[in-house]
Amino acid sequence: MKERLTLDLSKLPLHGMGTASVTWWGTLAFMLIEGTGFALVLAVYLYLMSLAATWPIDAPKPDLLPGTLVTLILLASLVPNILISRWAEQQDLRKIRIGMVVMSLFGIAPLIVRIFEFPALGISWDTNAYGSIVWTLLGLHTTHIMTDLVDTLVLAALMFTRHGNNARRFGDVQDNAMYWNFVVATWLPIYGCIYWIPRL
């Protein structure tokens, strides 16, 4: 009679990190879907611009200061965000706690500036097609900042409880960092469209 081989899986970790995690793949799929949405809205922006005799339509060029300030904040946030991802891989809870508080502040800062950014566009959302598309772009991106901020605040709170030292939470921190990179990356073409294309 042949001997049956059995595999002992009891020593495998309960949760994976990176590509070994189901939530990593879910986050990636979400980013692909949302990225497609951003690409479609940018395509509408460019289409409307191609139809217009002048761009922007019946509006001054948007004030550069608020949008540029948001851009600088988002770019600066990449440094602690990359560090947090590394610390999560190393499962260094003390550093992650500090990093999550820092990233919470980096999530709040652009939202504060964004309060001044909408009026700096120099046009209302319901004035014409130009106003509608720039408000839509800014509104979509603001929604993504808020979404990640809520996730960051929840994870930061969990890191200060007994749940923080759970291996699954370290994977969640990495996924959150990956999503923040997406939020920053999607802002750059939006910033170019809203603030620089009208100046060409």
Tag the structure with descriptive keywords.
single chain; 200 residues; mainly alpha; elongated
Structure description:
Helices cover 73% and strands 0% of the residues. It is an all-alpha fold and 200 residues long. It has a single domain, classed as Four Helix Bundle (Hemerythrin (Met), subunit A) (Up-down Bundle). It is elongated. The termini are far apart. The model has no long low-confidence stretch (mean pLDDT 92).
Short structural description:
This protein is mainly α and 200 residues long.
Number of DSSP-assigned strands: 0
The general outline is: elongated
Give the CATH class.
Mainly Alpha
CATH topology value: Four Helix Bundle (Hemerythrin (Met), subunit A)
CATH superfamily: Cytochrome c oxidase, subunit III, four-helix bundle
Strand content: under 5%
Tally of contiguous helical segments: 5
Question: How many domains in all?
Answer: 1
Query: Mean pLDDT across all residues, rounded?
Result: 92
SS-based class: mainly alpha
Give the ordered list of helices and strands: HHHHH
Approximate helicity band: over 70%
Ends: how far apart?
A: 80 Å
Q: In this structure, how is the largest beta sheet organized?
A: none
Low-confidence stretches: none
CATH structural architecture = Up-down Bundle
Radius of gyration: 21 Å
